[in-house]
Amino acid sequence: xxxxxxxxxxxxxxxxxxxxxxxxxxxxxxxxxxxxxxxxxxxxxxxxxxxxxxxxxxxxxxxxxxxxxxxxxxxxxxxxxxxxxxxxxxxxxxxxxxxxxxxxxxxxxxxxxxxxxxxxxxxxxxxxxxxxxxxxxxxxxxxxxxxxxxxxxxxxxxxxxxxxxxxxxxxxxxxxxxxxxxxxxxxxxxxxxxxxxxx
Length: 199
Hints:
Layout: E1 5-10, E2 13-18, H1 39-49, E3 60-64, H2 70-77, E4 82-87, H3 92-101, E5 108-112, E6 128-132, H4 141-151, E7 157-163, H5 166-177, E8 180-188, E9 191-198
Parallel strand pairs: 3-4, 3-6, 4-5, 6-7
Antiparallel strand pairs: 1-2, 7-9, 8-9
């Protein structure tokens, strides 16, 4: 079976996003949900398309837990000089395919990054860090915080979108305890977009 392709229009430009229905964890055999295009990625990408283009132009961008890479690809379309899409190893071929399918392989690179284990120096620092639908497991937040601290420098902007659910609030509480500020920017149905900073 071929992977489904979803066409997404952001800021008047169309992107083709391949989703992987049969991407599985090589150890457990469980389906990797990161190969699906989630609503929070769509909401974040749409919101990014409404921001001033200078937010992205000439910037270095890292997307954590990129899945299909939509927000990072949008940053590339909007003028980022370099975008690094990161996720677990099994999802990297799909990320490369999406960068190539949209003619962004010159400014987009794909790297494996495991929160709390892979040195953030391998992908950063960054001017802008993107995250969508990463806030569901409070136990993983200290590792995410460690990775974020390594990616941040003075002036780094963190943009995050999530489905509003109880576990997201629990995750935010952990991140605030790790020294991150959270600022609500936009709400759209069951989704919220935040900017974050490290104190």
